[in-house]
Design a protein that fits this description.
Elements lengths: L31 H17 L19 H4 L7 E6 L5 E5 L10 E3 L1 H17 L5 H9 L5 H8 L2 E6 L5 H13 L4 E4 L4 H11 L13
Parallel strand pairs: 1-4, 4-5
Antiparallel strand pairs: 1-2, 2-3
Length: 214
């Protein structure tokens, strides 16, 4: 218990005619309630403070393999390949890259969102059926079985150039979430694709922005 004692100590006045004896005063302050209040506030903030939980994003990474047929098991017609260049440049092509690169195109991040939406709608519209997928969706209790299986045919392949920034890489991954792309993967850009990008914007000089292969 803490207290504050006050008084004159008896040495401040002298006895004599006409001199009144000062009354000794004692001031006592009990600090115990303040201590209790302090501990209560600390306990309150400890138990009510909300800790920030980091959000994560699932990223499909391809397995290392030397077999070309295992590198791409998806339908070429349902694939959209996106390449990230320097200075926020974005390049893409649908399906398989043609020998004359006639389907190789350049756009912006705003434009690539429109291309993702358009390609996804095109893949769903051209769905012809998948018995195995439909049976699995039916067993899982899915309502729109055709849409669920048609959406499985759409896949986005992301290929950052060495000069691509991590911000651009994160931005394109955000586009996958925004547009509800179920299947996407980040892979190393091919030499032929790299040459096309460099022919457009110049040789690359930076370090690749791709994460290590798993």
């Amino acid at each position: 218990m803490a207290s504050i004692e006050g008084g004159d100590g008896g040495g401040g006045h002298k006895k004599g005619p006409g001199v009144k004896k000062a009354k000794k005063l004692s001031t006592r302050v009990d600090m115990t309630p303040m201590v209790d209040l302090g501990f209560l506030l600390i306990t309150f903030f400890i138990f009510t403070a909300t800790l920030s939980t980091p959000s994560t994003m699932d990223l499909n990474m391809p397995k290392d393999t030397n077999k070309d047929e295992e590198l791409n098991k998806t339908k070429q017609s349902g694939a959209l390949t996106i390449m990230l260049g320097k200075n926020n440049n974005v390049y893409y092509y649908e399906g398989e890259l043609s020998p004359d690169a006639s389907n190789f195109k350049q756009t912006t991040f705003k434009g690539i969102r429109d291309e993702i939406i358009k390609k996804k709608k095109s893949v769903i519209a051209s769905y012809t059926g998948n018995a195995a997928c439909e049976e699995k969706a039916r067993a899982a209790g899915k309502k729109d079985i055709k849409y669920e299986c048609a959406d499985e045919d759409f896949v986005v392949v992301i290929k950052p150039m060495p000069d691509a920034t991590y911000k651009n890489t994160v931005d394109i991954l955000d586009e996958m979430t925004i547009n509800n792309v179920k299947r996407f993967a980040m892979v190393k850009i091919a030499d032929s694709e790299k040459e096309l990008v460099e022919a457009t914007e110049g040789p690359s000089t930076g370090a690749a922005a791709t994460p290590p292969a798993q």
